[in-house]
Each structure stands twice: as structure tokens, then as C-alpha cells.
Amino acid sequence: MRLPELTRKDIRDILIIFAAVTLLTVLHFVITDFPVFPEWFDIVEGDTSYTVVISGAAQPADYETFQRLAEMDSTLLVDTRSREMYRKGHIPGAVNVPYDEGDASLSRFELRGDIRLAITYCDGADCMSSVDLAEKLVFVFPEVYYFFGGWKVWIDKGNPVEVGEGKVF
Amino acid sequence: MNKQPILKLACMLLLSVVFLISGFSKLADPHLFVRDIMNYKLFPPQPLHILAIWLIMLELFIGFGLWIPFLQRGSAWISAGLMAFFILMVAIAMARGLDISCGCFGQGSQKVGWKKILENTGLLIAALYLLWPRTSEKSSVTSSDL
């Protein structure tokens, strides 16, 4: 059985395609405001390290990413549900900033220079308040994520919960 | 009945649709694709934006290129190479115990795993089928063959 043969013409065609794609890539950077080189920072705490590329926009965090980032001291967890829901149970270490208080809280956030990364969450996939607050927090913190699965996924995974007033921001 | 032209058309359609959906979904949110690449922990941050956009443009180009006669073989070879590269990346991530999104289709991506390797292997076979010498003297796929 004959195998596919990579001919000189094929190599020429491949190189032409690569050249065309490179040209399209350059055009993309020229036409859009997508930066050529990313800004990034490293969070290193003990044995744990995580490189965060600054995107300038709130990004979704899946459960595994949320778990890894939530443990770091320079991460701020923000619960955007109502105060009543927060007191009944929240993710340990999260502060409560109900979404309708978000604008008034932004100035308090700006005073916290030690926070390099913020993650918001609310009830779950049907709740958009975590996304809405995250999109405001990108102007305050270097990088912001929203944990889309939220409280529902945290509970479903059997994780510990904290009740009561929790941390004050 | 000679089924070769129909099979080759099916392979072209499959590869083209996959690459175009993949390319456009990543183009819609390149920051997310950058993060997906970062999660593989194989590249430093500096070239990530260039790498991400170049890969997106490559997928879109060969998604269309598979239908253009003088670009078909080159696109098929690159398709095969890309699939082999993706299989290798997923295998390395699995070997390192990384539980990450494959980054294949932007927000709708699956996790890395054997299912993803099998899917990519299927696409690799489809790309190689386009390159396989036919029983006739011609070895390149042209639109007249279809």
C-alpha cells in the first residue's frame, strides 16, 4: 500500500499557506486593538504558582480554575447574592457585595492594592450578577474572573460552607 | 460503484466544518483561547497572543482552502499536521494530570481526555484519506475528481 507522498509542490503550497496566514495575522493586529504582546503577572504563594494573563475583560473561570485561585491570599472572592442568601451560606472567605450595591462599593475596592485578582460568583448559570459586577471590577483589579457555576456547583461538589456575616470588605 | 469521490467529499466537508467552527468560535473570544493555551503550561506568556491569532487564522484559512483546488493538498497536509499536534498536546496534558479545557471551540470546548484524542484521531484519518494516492494515476484531489 502506497503512503501519501509529501512532494516538493506540497511543501511549496504549505509554505504559501503559512505566509498567507502570517499576513492575515499581521492584518488582525493592525485592524483590531488586540495587543501583540500580553501583559501578565505571576501569583506565587508557597508551592502554588499561577500565571495570569491580563485580558482587560472579565473572564469565566471553571470549577478547577476557581478552586486553584480561590485559595490564594491575593485573590478576592466576591459573593454578589443578597445579604440574606449570603448569611444562610457562602463560600468560605468570600465577601458579600450584593450586585445592587456594586457601584457604591467600587471606591472601597480601589483602596485594596494587595488584591491582584478578583473572582465573583452568584447562584449559578441562571444568575448574571456575578458577570455584571465582574465587568465593573476590571477597572479596579489587574484581572477579574467570574465563577459561572457559582454557589450551586460549589454545593454540588460537597465543599464546606460558611454561614453568618463572614468577612467584611 | 466507486465510492472514493463520495468519501473524499465527506472528509473535506467534515474537516472544513470543524476548522471553520473552531476558528470562528475562537475569533469571537481570543482572550479565552489565550487562556486555554496557557493552561497547557507549555509556552511562556510572551508569544501567546501571536500564537493564538496565528492558529485561529490557520484554521480559518484551511477551512476554506480545502475547497480551493490549488490549495487542497496543502490544506490537507496542514490539517493532518494540526490534528497530530493537537493529539500530542492533549496527550501531554493528560500525562501531566491537567484537568483543563481542550480549547478546541472557545466557550463550548470539552475537557482534555481520551474522547478528545479519539475525535482528533478521526479527523487526522480524514485528512490523511484526502492525501492517500488514488488507484488512478492522479494523486491529488481536484474538484473534477469529485
Can you give keywords for this protein?
heterodimer; A: 169 residues; alpha/beta; Oxidized Rhodanese, domain 1; B: 146 residues; 65% helix; globular
What layout of secondary structure does this protein have?
The complex is a heterodimer of chains A (169) and B (146).
Chain A: H1 8-31, E1 39-45, E2 48-54, E3 59-61, H2 63-70, E4 75-79, H3 83-88, E5 95-96, H4 102-110, E6 117-121, H5 129-137, E7 143-147, H6 150-156
Parallel strand pairs in A: 3-7, 4-5, 4-6, 6-7
Antiparallel strand pairs in A: 1-2
Chain B: H1 4-28, H2 30-39, H3 48-65, H4 72-95, H5 114-131
Describe, in short, the structure shown:
The complex is a heterodimer of chains A (169) and B (146). With 169 residues, chain A is an alpha/beta fold. Helices cover 37% and strands 20% of the residues of chain A.
Q: Can you characterise this structure?
A:
The complex is a heterodimer of chains A (169) and B (146). Chain A is an alpha/beta fold. Chain A has a domain at 40-156: Oxidized Rhodanese, domain 1 (3-Layer(aba) Sandwich). Chain A has helices at 8-31, 63-70, 83-88, 102-110, 129-137, 150-156; strands at residues 39-45, 48-54, 59-61, 75-79, 95-96, 117-121, 143-147. In chain A, the strands form two sheets. A five-stranded parallel β-sheet of chain A has the order 3-7-6-4-5. Chain A has a two-stranded antiparallel sheet with strand order 1-2. In chain A, strand 6, helix 5 (129-137) and strand 7 form a beta-alpha-beta unit. Chain B is mainly α and 146 residues long. Helix content of chain B is 65%, strand content 0%. Chain B is built from five helices and no strands. Chain B has helices spanning 4-28, 30-39, 48-65, 72-95, 114-131. In chain B, helix 4 runs antiparallel to helix 5 (114-131). At the A-B interface, helix 1 of A face helix 2, helix 3 and helix 4 of B.
